[in-house]
Each structure stands twice: as C-alpha cells, then as structure tokens.
C-alpha cells in the first residue's frame, strides 16, 4: 500500500491540502496517509521548520504532498529557523533535482492569462527545470579588482552526469505526453550550454520515439509568448528554468491553478502548488485548492504510475470549471471546501 506523506505547512497550506486529500480519498486507490507539521507550524510545535520526525516521514513515504510554508510571525527568526528552510532541506535531503511545472490554460480562464485569448488557449506544456546545479550552486563571491572596484562573480557549471539525469527526466516526461522535447540552452555563447546540448543529443539515442529540438533561451522566451502551443515539454537548466517557468505560469492564468513536482529520478517526489502560504487570505476559506488538487494528480502520475487516476482528477478539475465552479481568485464566490466539493462531484 503506497504511503503518502501529507505536509500541510502554513497559511492556506492546511486548507488546500485537505481538499486534495479528499479528492485522493474519493478515488479509493488504497493509499495510506500520514501527516506531519512543516514550516512555521513545525517551528511553533517542535522548534524547527523541518523536525526529524517530519524528515523521517518524508524519507519513508512513496511520495509527498506539500502545502506551503511561510509565516510572517517567523520573519525575525535566524535564517536556519525560517519556514522556507524546510523546503530547501527537503529538496537536498531527498535529492530532488528535477522540478516539473505544467502550464495549461483551463477552460473559461482565458481572461486570466497574460496572453491574447487566441494564443493562450493553446498552452499545454511542462517545463522540466534542473534544480541542484548551475550558477546558483557554483563558486560565488565578492572581490576587489586591481583598480579598486568591487566585483561580484558566480561560476556557472554543469557536469555531464547532472545534465544526463535531467535530460532523462525530460525525455520520460515527453514520453507520457505528446512525445516532443525542446531543450533550451544558450549554446552559442556558453560552454555549459554546449555541454548541455551535446549530452542531451547523446541521451536522445535512448529515446528514438521522442522528437527532440533545441532552442536558445532568448528565442524560447519570445516563442513562449508568440506561439506557446508549439511546446510540449521543455527541459532546461536551473537559471533559465527559473525564469521561463514563471513566465509560463503568467501565460496560464491564476497562481491558484498551477501545480508542480520535484523528483529524484527514481519516481519519488514532492508535489506542491506553485503558490505560497498566502497569509493575507489564510483561515478564511477563500483559497483556490485546484493547484494542490492538480499536484495530487501529478503525484499519482509521476510517483505511483497511476495515470488513469491522474487523468480522472485532471478531467474533474476541467469539468468543475466548465460547470462554472470558481473561487474568488477566478472571479467567483465558492469557498475552498465548495470548490473541493465541485471537483469531487465531477470525479463521477
Ligand atoms: P511565497 O514567498 O511563499 O511564494 P508569496 O508571498 O510570494 O509567497 P503567495 O503566498 O503565493 O505569495 O501569494 C501571492 C498572492 O496570491 C496573495 O495575494 C495570495 O492571496 C494569492 N494566492 C496565492 N495562492 C492562492 C490560492 N490558492 N488561491 C487564491 N489566491 C492565492
Ligand atoms: Mg512567491
């Protein structure tokens, strides 16, 4: 029986994970669940944002459903005690190196997209971003030049194993979608990108069924706005992926709709909405639970191999929206629980 760790966290985290849990329960898949505190909630109950018992549960579980962390009452704490450290710690401890962010426009949400409705409707893609390397983790520092000016530097580097493992996640992701992978780099000017491109091409020999293309990141940023329908899966490095995935999420509409997955390459993963703890609306039953419900669908698909169940959840969200179910962020009046009800009802 697969074990799902539920880490609700702070702010709206408990409200939205409760709805996702209800959807998973309604599917009757024989899953077992264990819950543990994380973030500010864990700091207040156990003195640390990622207590040993929570980390132990995360390690034992087959997959993790995560709400959100962040609590204004913790702003003055030392950095290592702040809620946000919990997610960084989980990524590191679990070796979660691949971040998947689908961007898809759901029916009736064309007005919420930053793009023209006729192009926005075509968005249905996943960005696979490398999470543990690149310029964020290279040597960095501040020094003084010979002429006395301050100079900051950050070394960008990737080794071939790091590129190969994220490339494989990209190809595997494309395989369960439309079979198209676009690798994004800046190989015309960066050595890291030249290696990136070479390794992606080498790995592609193992995936003859996937149509591979390459694009420079500047062009990709433009194409994402001009014609997003051309993309199925994008695989890219940490820096480029950081920027492109935020850009793609604005193309797709409300922050309350977008799920994400962070994977370790063996199928284990942490699944969470891309939004934060939203302290401004916490405890009021106003949060849109769809991003977390869709994260649960990704959990079924990527960690448990339950594609049919994942399809059912995604179809139910679509059906609920088509039927007019809307929380406040989507211009409606439904509460968090009522939106969850609408999705559960639409499961059929
Ligand atoms: P973090 O640093 O954790 O990402 P943040 O302050 O950047 O947090 P969020 O917590 O994501 O941002 O909130 C940004 C805005 O979006 C807030 O006004 C919040 O109320 C709104 N928001 C976030 N998630 C939801 C949701 N699920 N439903 C409705 N509104 C949301
Ligand atoms: Mg944020």
UniProtKB/TrEMBL annotation:
Major localisation: cytoplasm
GO biological process, one term: L-leucine biosynthetic process
Presence of the UniProt keyword Chloroplast in the record: no
Enzyme Commission number, as recorded: 1.1.1.85
Co-factor binding comment: Binds 1 Mg(2+) or Mn(2+) ion per subunit.
Domain of life: Bacteria
GO CC entries: cytosol
Site (Important for catalysis): 136, 186
Residue intervals of the Isopropylmalate dehydrogenase-like domain: 3-343
Record carries keyword Membrane: no
Annotated residues for binding of NAD(+): 276-288
GO MF annotation list: 3-isopropylmalate dehydrogenase activity; magnesium ion binding; NAD binding
Residues annotated as binding Mg(2+): 218, 242, 246
Binding residues for substrate: 91, 101, 129, 218
Catalysed reaction, written as an equation: (2R,3S)-3-isopropylmalate + NAD(+) = 4-methyl-2-oxopentanoate + CO2 + NADH
Cofactor(s) listed: Mn(2+); Mg(2+)
Keywords from the UniProt entry: Amino-acid biosynthesis, Branched-chain amino acid biosynthesis, Cytoplasm, Leucine biosynthesis, Magnesium, Manganese, Metal-binding, NAD, Oxidoreductase
Enzyme class, spelled out: oxidoreductase
Protein's pathway: Amino-acid biosynthesis; L-leucine biosynthesis; L-leucine from 3-methyl-2-oxobutanoate: step 3/4
Family: Belongs to the isocitrate and isopropylmalate dehydrogenases family. LeuB type 1 subfamily.
Complex and partners: Homodimer.
UniProt function note: Catalyzes the oxidation of 3-carboxy-2-hydroxy-4-methylpentanoate (3-isopropylmalate) to 3-carboxy-4-methyl-2-oxopentanoate. The product decarboxylates to 4-methyl-2 oxopentanoate.
The protein's name in its UniProt record: 3-isopropylmalate dehydrogenase
